[in-house]
Amino acid sequence: xxxxxxxxxxxxxxxxxxxxxxxxxxxxxxxxxxxxxxxxxxxxxxxxxxxxxxxxxxxxxxxxxxxxxxxxxxxxxxxxxxxxxxxxxxxxxxxxxxxxxxxxxxxxxxxxxxxxxxxxxxxxxxxxxxxxxxxxxxxxxxxxxxxxxxxxxxxxxxxxxxxxxxxxxxxxxxxxxxxxxxxxxxxxxxxxxxxxxxxxxxxxxxxxxxxxxxxxxxxxxxxxxxxxxxxxxxxxxxxxxxxxxxxxxxxxxxxxxxxxxxxxxxxxxxxxxxxxxxxxx
Length: 281
Ligand SMILES: Nc1ncnc2c1ncn2[C@@H]1O[C@H](COP(=O)(O)OP(=O)(O)OP(=O)(O)O)[C@@H](O)[C@H]1O
Description:
InterPro entries: AAA+_ATPase, ABC_transporter-like_ATP-bd, ABC_transporter-like_CS, ABC_transpr_PhnC, MetN_ABC_transporter-like, P-loop_NTPase. This is Phosphonate ABC transporter ATP-binding protein. It is a peripheral membrane protein. GO terms for molecular function: ATP binding. Keywords: ATP-binding, Cell inner membrane, Cell membrane, Membrane, Nucleotide-binding, Translocase, Transport. This protein is α/β, with parallel strands linked by helices. It has 2 domains: about 1-90 and about 170-280, Rossmann fold; about 95-170, no CATH class. The protein is built from 9 helices and 10 strands. The strands form 2 sheets. It has a 6-stranded mixed beta sheet with strand order 6-7-8-3-9-10, sandwiched between helices. A 4-stranded antiparallel beta sheet has the order 2-1-4-5, covered by helices on one side. Helix 4 packs across helix 5 (about 155-170) and helix 5 packs parallel to helix 6. The longest helix has 18 residues, at about 185-200. The N and C termini lie far apart (about 45 Å). The structure holds adenosine-5'-triphosphate (ATP).
């Protein structure tokens, strides 16, 4: 039976694993707690399992083993609990998933849809929703772009609309899947800083997948390093040592134990390609 999460815990994955069709092992059975207000970065090479772990947290990817347990709603073992959990879990995507021919405000308002039934969502949004959406745009510095079509905004501005839409959902958790992968370094820093500051201010638990070590060290409260479908590091950024990076980015041939955990059992370590090594710098 699933154990009960403690007070500060927001979400627990318990012996959760994902194997895709054709026996592709993307995440070995793993147990991890995510705490209230924590800003966690999932770090690893392409194919390490970051997106799989991130998306399984709200069952966008369905775990094939173990369970996801919400402190608020319990184990995600029914359509009802999954729906409840998703209504409080906002997503930010790499390509923002905005409706380009709609205005920034209209896009942010879609963050409110989870709070209305299908029939209600066909009607104009209530005034409170409009005010909230405007407030969210203000928080990401885009109040003056509320009525601008999204396809007339820059990539960084579009991602800020994506964050405002997530905030309009009034989430207790935000899952961000490589939210800066399409942005230049200066814009990436601005977007990540904004997301981190707002989540900190509002106490929103955030899990975000990134390739860039530098950003993970700069913005994360906690880094979870993945390699070969398993967690090989899980601690504060200050604890990340060269041998951990070796584990994350090189398959860890001469690894030492990760903080708080026994050394991970490895099968068939996959060595990164030279292009992949670039991202470790
Ligand atoms: N829908 C799918 N069907 C089959 N295999 C998949 C699917 N999605 C991912 N995989 C495989 O699962 C493994 C983990 O992929 P995942 O996308 O989680 O890695 P990632 O660390 O997020 O990579 P990236 O940084 O490139 O997004 C990879 O081997 C990938 O090819």
